[in-house]
Structures are given as structure tokens and as C-alpha cells.
Amino acid sequence: MNSILKTKNDLFNIIYNRRSIRRFSNEEVSNEVLEKILKAGFRAPFAAQLCSVVYTRDSEKMKKFKGIGLYPSTKVFMIFFIDFRRMEKIMTQRGHTYDFDDGMTLWLGIQDVNLAIENVILSSEALGLGSVLLGVVPLKADLISEVFNVPDRVFPVVGLCLGYPDLSVETSIRPRFPLVHSAFEDSYKDLSEAEVKECMREMDEGYLTQGYYIKQRAKIPLKEGKDEIDYDKYSWSEHISRKFSQRRWSDDTLFSIIKKHGFNIK
Ligand SMILES: Cc1cc2nc3c(=O)[nH]c(=O)nc-3n(C[C@H](O)[C@H](O)[C@H](O)COP(=O)(O)O)c2cc1C
Prior knowledge:
CATH architecture of the largest domain: 3-Layer(aba) Sandwich
Low-confidence stretches: none
Bound molecules: flavin mononucleotide
Shape: globular
Oligomer: single chain
Radius of gyration: 20 Å
Strand content: 5-15%
Number of helices: 10
CATH superfamily of the largest domain: NADH Oxidase
């Protein structure tokens, strides 16, 4: 078989079989493996290389991040940053002064970061590792800056717990919305009520069948009133609706935290 085709098939296998891993074995992640996956991360397309990673394998250091949901068996904890500091140093060496919209700078930075992350995730899968992202990280930017000595104009986007999967824990592939309701040719499709229901059914049945929230005990409590939904009915669409209908994690808005870290956004 054509070797290029085979390689592409391998990649599809990795992508279609990836699932978040939250329990890791005791096996350490070597320098060689780390270098390989990080190198793959930084091979991603980029707007301006506005991405840096800080990682630790030190379990004592990791304990400081318990409050951001770091899973206890994590072997490597990585944080991906939008990094404009390095770019400004380059500009200074070239004798230029920054005059750009910080909103757009951040936007480009997020894209550089996200592309790098996906490469890290997929290449680590290819080497037998598993991972899960942590999204609360930007709201904990003060703590992260303190623990990792991060200066202004460098801002955390997301965390990644990494390690070899604990194979005694069964994990399933999570559902997604039907493709026809997410990818549109030629014109955006504003979903009808029935189509929205199809999206919800696909996700809810998948998550309920897998017992996802029961296993994780990850129910979000209601802000007020009696919770009538037990775990046997607590589904993805209920979870995600609860998530976006109540502010948790931080009293500050994300934009106010970003501002505190040296970015000028209005
Ligand atoms: C930006 C982002 C933030 C996330 N944050 C968390 C998190 O804080 N804790 C967690 O357990 N999973 C987190 N996840 C993982 C998602 O819950 C997971 O990707 C989703 O449920 C789909 O499951 P799958 O990755 O197994 O396909 C995050 C994923 C993304 C993309």
C-alpha cells in the first residue's frame, strides 16, 4: 500500500479513537517522549508563534493546582500560554514599537496556542499517552503566574494533564452533534427545534449510556430550588446548560483578569 495513505489512516485512527483520560498509570513520561510531543506541538501552523508552554513533573508543585481540577494521578501538567513578551523583545531588537489592537493580539495568540495543543494531544496519543484539558486555567492566572514565575503579557489559555492511561479504568468515546448540524455547505443553517432536539438526543443518550456523570460524580448543583434530576437522567445537555447558566470559579470576569496581566482590552 502507498505509505502516505497508510500514514493518513493511522492519523484518522488516532483522531477518531481519542478520548479524554482522567486516570493515569504510575509510568513516568521520559524526556525523550516529552521532547517529541512538544516538538510536534510547535510544528503547528502559527500566526506569530505567540505560544509558550510551561510544564511540570513535580508532584509537589502539582498539588498547588488542585483548585483548578488537576487530576491527582497526572504525570505531567502543562499550561499553554499566549506569549506576547517574546514577540515584543524581538520587536525591540528590531527597533519597532508595538502599535496593535491587543484584542486581535490575544485572538491570534489563542489560535496559535490551540493549534499547538491539538498537535501535542494527538502526538501524545500516537505514543500511547492520554490527556485531558483543564479549562478553568485562565481564571486562575494569578496563581499560575506566581507558581511558574510568569511575567505580564504572557497569559494562560488552558491546562493539560498528561500521562499513560490507567488501563484498569474503562473509557469510552464520547458522542458529538450529528455532523449535518455542525458543518454546513454554502450557507449557515439555523437549526429548527426538531434539529436541536436531534443534537440533544445524540449527546444525551451517548453520555447516559456511558454513565459519564455518574462515574465522575460531576453534577453541577442548581443555584436555587430543588434538584429534580437524579444521576440516571442527568445528561450532557442538562450539564452544559447548568454550566452556562451560572457563574462559578471566579468573581472576576476573564477580561478583567487578562487586563491585570498586562493586556489592554476594552
Ligand atoms: C477547552 C477545554 C476545557 C476543558 N476543561 C476540562 C476540565 O476542566 N475538566 C475536565 O475533566 N475536562 C475538561 N475538558 C475535557 C472535556 O470535558 C472533554 O473533551 C469533552 O467532555 C469531550 O470528551 P472527549 O475529550 O473524551 O471526547 C475540557 C476540554 C476543553 C476543549
